[in-house]
Task: inverse folding
C-alpha cells in the first residue's frame, strides 16, 4: 500500500516509557525521531494522542466525578500530551501545527478539515488533540473521524506489540499473529483493535487500519516504504 497521508494514533500510556507514569522524555524523543524520519520522506502526518497516562474520563467516575466533566478533563490530558510531542518535534527541527477538538487559546487552534489539510500540504506535522471535542467519545473514535476528515490513506495505530494476535501475546505464548484481516473477520473474532464506533467508521469509509509496534525503531519508516510490518485491517 502506498501511503502519502496518514493518521498516526498513539496511546497516552505509550508516552510513559519505562517510568510507568506521566511522560518519559526519552520515549518522546524516540517518537519524535521516528516521525521526523517519515516526514523527511514526504509523508504527510497527522497525530492523535490519547491521555490515559494522565487522566481518563471513565476513570473519574470511580472518584465520583460526573462523566461529562471527566471526559473534558481527559480531553485536556490529550492537549498536554500533544504539547509535549509538539515540543519534542520542534526541538529537532520539525514544523508542527496543533489543532484541537476544543480551542485552547493560545495553545491550539480549533480543528477544521480545510485547515488541517492545508497545513499537511504545506509540510507541517499536525497534532490533533481534545478528541472529537465531545464527551462519550474515545480518542480511537477521534482518530477515525479525523482520518476520514483529512482523507488519510490509513490509520497507523502504534502499539507496543507488532500487530494483531489471536490472544494477548504478552499473556499467551501460543497466540498467533494475523498479517491481514478484513473488518468483518476482526468483528466476528471479537478482536479489540479499536472501539466499535471507531471501527465502524473506518469500515464504512473504507479506511485501512495498520497496527504495528511503534517502539521498534525504524518501523514507521519501513511501513511507508512498503514493507510488511504489523497487521493490516481492511475491506
Result:
Amino acid at each position: 500500500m502506498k501511503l502519502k497521508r496518514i493518521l498516526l494514533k498513539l496511546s497516552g500510556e505509550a508516552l510513559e516509557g519505562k517510568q510507568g507514569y506521566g511522560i518519559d522524555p526519552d520515549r518522546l524523543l524516540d517518537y519524535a525521531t521516528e516521525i521526523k524520519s517519515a516526514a523527511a520522506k514526504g509523508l504527510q502526518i497527522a497525530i492523535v494522542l490519547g491521555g490515559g497516562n494522565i487522566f481518563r474520563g471513565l476513570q473519574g467516575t470511580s472518584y465520583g466525578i460526573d462523566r461529562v466533566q471527566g471526559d473534558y478533563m481527559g480531553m485536556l490530558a490529550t492537549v498536554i500530551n500533544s504539547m509535549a510531542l509538539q515540543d519534542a518535534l520542534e526541538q529537532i527541527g520539525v514544523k508542527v501545527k496543533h489543532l484541537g477538538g476544543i480551542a485552547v487559546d493560545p495553545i491550539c487552534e480549533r480543528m477544521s478539515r480545510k485547515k488541517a489539510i492545508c497545513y499537511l500540504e504545506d509540510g507541517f506535522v499536525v497534532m490533533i488533540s481534545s478528541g472529537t471535542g465531545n464527551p462519550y467519545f474515545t480518542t480511537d473514535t477521534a482518530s477515525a473521524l479525523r482520518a476520514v476528515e483529512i482523507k488519510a490513506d490509513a490509520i497507523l495505530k502504534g502499539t507496543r506489540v507488532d500487530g494483531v494476535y489471536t490472544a494477548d501475546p504478552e499473556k499467551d505464548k501460543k497466540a498467533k499473529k494475523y498479517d491481514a484481516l478484513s473488518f468483518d473477520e476482526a468483528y466476528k473474532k471479537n478482536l479489540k483493535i479499536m472501539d466499535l464506533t471507531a471501527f465502524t467508521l473506518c469500515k464504512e469509509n473504507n479506511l485501512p487500519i495498520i497496527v504495528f509496534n511503534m517502539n521498534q525503531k525504524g518501523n514507521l519508516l519501513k511501513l511507508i516504504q512498503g514493507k510488511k510490518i504489523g497487521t493490516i485491517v481492511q475491506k
